[in-house]
Design brief:
- The chain has one helix spanning 4-76, and strands at 86-97, 107-116, 121-126, 132-140, 145-150, 159-169, 172-181, 185-194.
- By secondary structure, the protein is α+β, with helices and mostly antiparallel strands.
- The longest helix is centred in the N-terminal third of the chain and has 73 residues, at 4-76.
- It folds into 2 domains: 1-76; 86-197, Lipocalin (Beta Barrel), CATH 2.40.128.20.
Length: 202
């Protein structure tokens, strides 16, 4: 009996050792599986963030492209603001002149029409039959309107006309109209534009 007890104790120790090692291996496998799943989840989150960043980048690129297109169109396509486009009555009074064609105190009333063709701003001077007498090139900076006209270089009498409007209101504009003939004489006029009664806001 004494000889068998140590042997049984030895066998029991081996079984316990094997059992503990097996349990430890299972725990290690579970931990490895858990670590692997955490890595997979982490990678999935990174991939999701990456795709979200790509979508954000695409949106920014599209927005920038659209803004560039709009800016390009704005720099090319030109229109008069609504409160300036259309017809105006223009009253000119001569205040200075060293030209024989114009005398101080001379007055005239004309009809003007502010128009655009998508690429340029201009203003037509009309006669009482609504026929175009002269077309002025126009520039508009927000605070000033400049209307310019020059006769063809081939004509013998060279005339340059410029109207600068620096008081701009919804139904009235004021400024100076200058006429230069053959670079030899100049006449200046005060000019006041008012809306025809049919165009005024009710």
């Amino acid at each position: 009996m004494k000889s068998t007890f140590p042997f049984l104790t030895f066998l029991l120790s081996i079984f316990l050792l094997v059992g503990c090692n097996g349990k430890n291996r299972e725990d290690q496998l579970r931990q490895r599986e858990l670590d692997l799943q955490l890595r997979i989840d982490s990678f999935a989150n990174v991939e999701k963030e990456y795709h979200e960043l790509l979508q954000m980048k695409d949106s920014i690129v599209k927005a920038d492209s659209l803004r560039l297109v709009n800016d390009s169109l704005s720099s090319v396509v030109k229109f008069w603001p609504q409160h300036l486009a259309g017809r105006w009555n223009g009253r000119l009074v001569c205040t200075e002149s060293d030209c024989s064609d114009y005398v101080i105190g001379d007055q005239r009333v004309d009809t003007w029409e502010f128009k655009s063709d998508s690429l340029n701003l201009y203003a037509d001077l009309l006669n009482n039959k609504n026929q175009i007498v002269r077309t002025y090139n126009a520039t508009f900076s927000g605070n000033n309107i400049v209307l310019s006209f020059k006769t063809d270089p081939s004509v013998s009498k060279k005339v340059a006309m410029q109207t600068t409007l620096n008081e701009i209101m919804p139904d009235k504009m004021k400024g100076i109209h200058t006429i230069t003939i053959d670079n030899d004489c100049t006449a200046k006029f005060t000019v006041e534009f008012t809306r025809p009664s049919s165009n005024k806001k009710q």
